[in-house]
Amino acid sequence: MVIRYTLILFGLFLISVPSCDRPVRKEYIDLATFDSEDTYHRGWLTHQDEDGNPLLLFEYYTSVKKDTVWGKRFFYQDAKIDTVNSMFYELDWTWDKDSLVKGRIKFYDRPDGDGPVSNQSFSLLLLRAWRDTIETISFSEEGKNWLEFEFKSNTDAIVGGLRYSKATNNGRVVAGEIELDYLQISMPVANKKRAYNPFNRIIDE
Prior knowledge:
Helix content is about 0%, strand content about 60%. With about 200 residues, the chain is mostly beta strands.
């Protein structure tokens, strides 16, 4: 079986955060207010037609060092989201009096052909600020494009990155073997306009 890969990286997806980059303070840490070279501000790039109807809406994150990472991408058709070409996630969460964050994230990607989809894998890697430390936590699901998460946190800030992959069988045969189209996407995740997020680093080397 032959697999053809398509890799789309909107932001760096790190396995872990180096210990030297984990700030530790005596007071409780808030990812939305912590200052670092890995603090990013979220913005939106928009484009409209002559009547003011949206044509595209791209999310981006800019760091203190002026590095830019792209996030969700919306294309529009007749003023409605074109789900065939857009890539984005929906994020719902709550933060209760017991400092417990509960949430659900669902990822929407563009179809990679008309064939059956297999080998779906969805993972979410988050930073958790709990008391005076920052650590990484992860959640994953197989065969789905969504997952639920739950963790203790100082605030309701959700910061990290997602990775989604799938294989599509479009019926193509090469040299007598079925060729699968494999899509892998990584994207920054945040529910704040400003947050400390080392997952957004761009590697130039």
